[in-house]
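To whoever is covering the structure queue this week,

Two jobs came back overnight. Logging them here so there's a record in the thread.

Job A:
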Amino acid sequence: VAGMLFETVGWFNVDIIPMTLLRIVGLMVLLLGTYIAVVLATQRKTLASRTQNNQTSSRLVLRLWAFGAGVLCTVQSTFNGQLGNLIDSPTVSALWAFVIGLIVLVFLKPNTWQVLVRGIKMPQSWSAGVAGGTFVTLMSLLIPKLGPGLTVSISTLGVMVGAMLVQQFGLFKSSRQNVSMTQVIGILIMLSGIILIKMF
């Protein structure tokens, strides 16, 4: 949603792409697919817990926070892409994103040296760092070439497919759960929405 908005209005100096009826339909199809893959697929599992402990308002707040995080991801990726383009190095652009991010995080949450040392010894820290650095670098490289709308849409689809693979095979010590047909249908609908947005 944020990527298409930036492209339509031309925010953050991105190339303007006029909003067409087909792009709107594609966005609606993409949102429908996301709803099916995420909400409907997990509705049965969470129905019992919701009945026992009604936390509808807190769930809504958390979902709004998640939506806001997605918007910030698009903003960050757009700025990273522009910086990488200006200095002709998506890797350095990603590096600066992490350096500034580190400074912000130090002030956002108090950290102790004991926790920092304990964290750096964990293999998850190194794995997350490598994956995060690679992700930010790739987004910096792709945003100027594909635009924020298409880049973020495809990366969101990748996130969903990756999550399904982790779930299906219990990767990285996660709990193993079979992927449902509802999730697969939702992913295919998301893909259709992306094709409608950008291919026609």
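Job B:
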Amino acid sequence: MNLAIQKQRIESFQREGFSFDVIDSGPLDGQPFVLLHGFPETNKSWQETAEILNQNGYRTFAVNQRGYSLGAQPQNRRDYRSSTLVEDVNALIDMIQQQVYLVGHDWG
């Protein structure tokens, strides 16, 4: 585990000039879950799930995905391709520097 990541919260991350909002909660040393919302939800849709996971010792990262974060709203349709969305999530996972449980629903 990377101790630098454990000791600080991640409130946002950047990729290709865009800034993505993150709700980081739970124990700093907990096994991480990355929670991906569906359409037309936001990261707040994971609040109850995150609370349950946090109470059971897991750390959660609920991401506002491309188009939902105020700092990540490109105008071109091609900027919303599945491969691009995957790379956004990979950028967060690279920051976490651990294996994660990846949870999504709908388009998440």
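Note for Job B: The chain is about 25% helix and 25% strand.

Please reply-all if you pick these up so we don't duplicate work.
Q.
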